[in-house]
Amino acid sequence: MFLGYFTERPYQDRSADWYQSALPILDLSLSNGVIDPHLQADLYHRYLDEKLYVEEMGFDGVMLNSHHSTPFCMGGGPMNNEAAILARLTTKAKIVLLGNVLPIWDDPLWLVEELGMIDVLSRGRLVSGWVRGTGSESFSHNAQPPYNWERFQEAHDFIIKAWTTPGPFRWEGDHYQYRYVNPWVRPYQQPHPQIWVPGSISRATVEWAARHRYVYVMLDSQLHLTEQVFEIYRQEARRNGYEAGSQHLGYMFRVHVDDTEEKAYETGRKLIEGVGNVFLDGSNGQANIWAQNLPGLNPRKKSGYLPTVEYDRVAAARGLATGKSVTDEESWKHEDVSREEHDRRRYEIWDGVLERYAAIVGTPDTVLPKIRHVLETLRPGNVFFWHGDGDMSHEESMHGIRLFGEYVLPAVREMGQELELKSAFEIDTQTNQPLDDTTLTSNV
């Protein structure tokens, strides 16, 4: 198995009134004027330090993501910069980018060069992931939403050609035109780094990933619905002449490990507190309707969505009335209630998150059976533990990472062997043949 680590790198300012507010933050409503650059510098250093410790404690890789213009993720534009820093500071961990928002790039040749340099600098440890992005990214970067899917596919095709075809050559596409393509950097991994695709609700993205035999990573989704999504991938794989295995599937879920059940419960609850993440089950973030439902961005019919949209937190903001919700949002938003009542309701929401396996907390002994249940249910070969997020402190994150490394990771690796869960670094997703060390560095 591949075992990775992820955090959104939230902007935490516990002294700010907006941070302590009991009311949810409307996405794209907070001015960057509240940023304290000195605090932000400390936070960037903190998150980098944690990732170095992640490598030391035996994780196989770190995942970085990219949300723009929002305090719940400081990795919007800087994600590739973070990756470059980690490429130099780390020595073993894979650097998994999930991912660059292709449709908002007017010049994807920059990505060809930036990512190529990161792969060379890390000596072949880059995993390059692509995403279509949400309405927030399209709105913030003035990208035309009706062309989101077209631009995504063309930018992908261009990048692959630029990585694999000696230049110079010319590119005349519908959305991108270049008279001279000859980037002076080539990927360390040949013909190019592995490409992984994350998602949560777009059916077209899953089917596209399966047609390309790319790893598809489900993000923080309901277990029984994720099972259905993985079956959609398998069916599309069969239509394209191959059988998808665990190496093609990835899953990210929240896990916190602590010394006692009580500490795990209280510290783990911080994963849903702090800055509101509109995509996070249990978070107090509020999706912005005019940003999530831009004209032409989302499918017009429900058939264009995955089963996971049934409980998606931003489904209503995207114009889909599913009639179901993971939380009773009316019980806590836009009400002038006491802090005690607010906290009571947040605990109630947290209990629901735990009940449906949207997060797992406990001691090493108690989290392992729950992790095994996830692995047996979904059978992913590529797993990310989401940790150190929300309102969790640096000290709490580091303590949890240590317990992961000392107790949880070795046991999970044994589970993976027993369940025969192979990662994309053990079985080539393109050929379904075993990979050896030489292949991993020269022909991924």
Outline:
The chain contains 14 helices and eleven strands. The chain has 444 residues and is α/β, with parallel strands linked by helices. It has one domain (2-19, 35-275, 359-442): TIM Barrel (Alpha-Beta Barrel).
Structure description:
This protein is α/β, with parallel strands linked by helices and 444 residues long. The protein has a single domain, classed as Luciferase-like domain (TIM Barrel). It contains 14 helices and eleven strands. Helix 2 runs parallel beside helix 13 and helix 3 (79-89) packs parallel to helix 4. The model is unreliable at 325-332 and 440-444 (pLDDT under 50).
Q: Which features would summarize this protein structure in a list?
A:
444 residues, eight-stranded parallel beta barrel, two-stranded antiparallel sheet, 11 strands, 14% strand, disordered C terminus
What is the element layout, followed by pairings?
Elements: E1 2-6, H1 17-20, H2 37-56, E2 61-64, H3 79-89, E3 94-101, H4 109-121, E4 126-131, H5 135-140, H6 148-164, E5 169-172, E6 177-181, E7 194-199, H7 203-212, E8 215-219, H8 223-239, E9 249-257, H9 261-269, H10 289-292, H11 339-355, E10 359-362, H12 364-378, E11 382-386, H13 394-419, H14 437-442
